[in-house]
Amino acid sequence: MDPLNFGMFHHENAARRNIYQADITPRNESSTDPITRTRQPIVTGTSVVALKYKDGVMLAADNLSSYGSLARFKDTERLHPVGDFTVIGASGDMSDFQYTKHLLDSEMIKEYYINDGHVLGTPHIYEYLSRVMYHRRTQINPLWNAYVVGGYHNGEGFLGYVDLLGTTYKSPSIATGFGGYFAQPILRKLVEN
Fold it and tell me: Is pTM beyond 0.85 here?
């Protein structure tokens, strides 16, 4: 089949192209339909800026989510608390961020009900996110996000970055989106000195 014709009607179905037919049979593993993947984000948020300073960690993000070039949603929360000492900030696809929030909240609920005295700290959440993002990448179905993970663990500030490939790093200042191009050089100069 010619790749330019993907999504087009086959010649044998050309006469029926104006008829909608719902397929109500359940999908199984022997289905001949292709597996679909998200190939690009749709509703996106951009920059998250974070820095670690002497007494804490600060994360900042705006509340705008864009639908293409349209500034569509102006009240989207892109910072999310996880547990008592951690906050994650997300840029990228907002539906994937909602999925990630659900995963993290489920993990925190499991930890609460296990009640073994162990608490998931900021480095643990950071590692968990890196494994989730890397796993989704290897399944060729990435979560289209870049996350900034900030918080406190054992009396020290923690600031880390995780992207859609599962790439991670820790730094005293982090910026995602356009902030990585504009704000990060200024933050590096100020924070590292």
Answer: no
